[in-house]
Design goal:
Layout lengths: L13 H11 L2 H25 L4 H17 L13 H19 L19 H8 L7 H27 L3 H7 L14 H6 L4 H24 L7 H14 L3
Helix pairs in contact: 1-2, 2-3, 2-4, 2-6, 6-7, 6-9
Length: 247
């Protein structure tokens, strides 16, 4: 399956809107934006920390500290949506933080900041073990894979929300098993059509429609993390995503 390229002129600017709110918003807006960024991108940073040799506890502390420090040290003030990619920005900033931490071992204790950011998921280490621990590679390579998985996971959640809003929850549950880039070769089966309560022809049509929507949502999700006016960077980031996943 060939990875999609972006041709759409419209896209959500969610990630960079959050960055701008971290820079210029009210205290409440900054805290909320930072919380959303943490929920979206904790796994790539956690994977980087674990592959760098940190224990699960230290890795969680470092990721938590990174987001808490983001406002105090204005990490995001150096972010410019017209200059680069959010993936590269976060990886470089986190790498620098870990270097400082390894140098002076002055890790921030939990609860040491007045700014509230939700802790990582209770099963953070379990998610890491299930998805990434057995993968070979450097911290940067593991970060890239976790980033790609995060993009696909976020996209699937958006896709599911759309189907739920249309009252098609069961159709989504059946069709998603046949999506490309979701652990499937995309082939249809009579069993799938039967499970969805559809004829084989209607099933193929519905699956094709979902594939197109899924591809477009992937494009939009990637687009929201790179320079908004740079089409070449969007396509390059899409290639990077699918190459990282071996697709």
């Amino acid at each position: 399956m060939v990875a999609p390229t972006s041709q759409s002129p419209t896209f959500p600017d969610t990630c960079w809107t959050l960055i701008h709110r971290c820079q210029d918003g009210t205290v409440e807006e900054r805290d909320e934006a930072l919380s959303v960024l943490c929920r979206m991108y904790w796994l790539p940073l956690y994977a980087f920390a674990r592959r760098s040799g940190l224990s699960p506890e230290d890795a969680e502390d470092r990721v938590q500290s990174f987001f808490l420090d983001a406002l105090r040290t204005d990490i995001f003030s150096r972010a410019d949506e017209h200059r680069g990619r959010l993936r590269s920005l976060l990886c470089q900033a986190f790498r620098n933080q870990l270097r400082r931490w390894f140098r002076d071992q002055s890790a921030q204790k939990r609860g040491g900041s007045a700014t509230h950011v939700p802790l990582l998921p209770n099963d953070a280490e379990n998610q890491f073990q299930a998805q990434l621990a057995d993968r070979a590679g450097t911290p940067e390579q593991l970060f890239a894979r976790a980033w790609a998985l995060t993009v696909l996971d976020t996209t699937l959640k958006r896709l599911e929300t759309g189907y739920n809003d249309r009252g098609q929850q069961q159709r989504y549950k059946v069709l998603r098993e046949y999506l490309p880039w979701n652990g499937s070769d995309g082939s249809t089966t009579a069993e799938g059509a039967e499970s969805a309560g559809m004829t084989p022809g209607a099933f193929r049509t519905a699956l094709n429609r979902m594939r197109k929507e899924y591809q477009q949502l992937i494009i939009e999700e990637v687009r929201s993390t790179v320079a908004s006016d740079d089409q070449a960077e969007v396509d390059d980031e899409l290639r990077h995503l699918f190459t990282t996943l071996g697709l």
